[in-house]
Amino acid sequence: DVQLVESGGGSVQAGGSLRLACAVSGNTNTRLCMAWFRQAPEKERERVARLSHFGLTTYADSVKGRFTIPRDNAKNTPYLLMNNLRPGGTAMYYCAAGSGCSWDSFEYWGQGTQVTVS
User: Fold this and answer.
1) What are phi and psi of 107, to 5 degrees?
2) Rg of the chain in Å (alpha carbons)
3) What pLDDT digit, counting tens, does each position of 2-18 carry?
4) What pLDDT, on a 0 to 100 scale, did the predictor assign at position 75?
5) Burial track 38-76 (b if 16+ CB lie within 10 A, e otherwise)
6) pLDDT band for position 91 (cuts 50, 70, 90)
7) Distance between alpha carbon 72 and the CA centroid of its chain, in Å?
8) Residue 92 and residue 39 in contact, taking contact as beta carbons nearer than 8 Å
9) Going by C-beta distance under 8 Å and a sequence separation of 6 or more, which residues neighbour residue 60?
10) Distance of alpha carbon 43 from alpha carbon 77, whole angstroms
């Protein structure tokens, strides 16, 4: 099994930056595909960014050019670097992981970290 714990959320003014982290533990012998999702109040969960097993990145159109998803391999921790945050970015942000990499296939999820942009 794999456990994910997000951190780094908080409140920030529009135009500001935050760095979210996703600590991965458990059975990490299998190379995992990692992703970030977000869900705003009364809205459906939204894809944000994805990091494939081989380091390829995919971003939602709404965050392209502002968000990046690097990974610290030594710490086994993927990050979500968010620049130029907008009020529409207020949401609970979730880290996800899976052996597959399609957006609908992630089987492991964290509890989320709240980001508020004012």
Assistant:
1) -100, -10
2) 13
3) 999 999 999 999 999 99
4) 65
5) beeeeeeeebbbbbeeeeeeebeeebeeebbbebeeeee
6) very high
7) 14
8) yes
9) 46, 47, 48, 49
10) 28
DSSP string, 15-34: T--EEEEEEEEE--SS--EE
Q: Which of 104, 81, 97, 89 is nearest to 23 (CA)?
A: 97
Q: How many CB atoms lie within 10 A of CB 84?
A: 13
- Check: CB of residue 108 under 8 Å from CB of residue 98: yes
**Sign of the CA dihedral 30, 7, 104, 56?**
negative
pLDDT tens, residue by residue, 43-84: 999 999 999 988 899 999 999 999 999 877 666 778 999 999
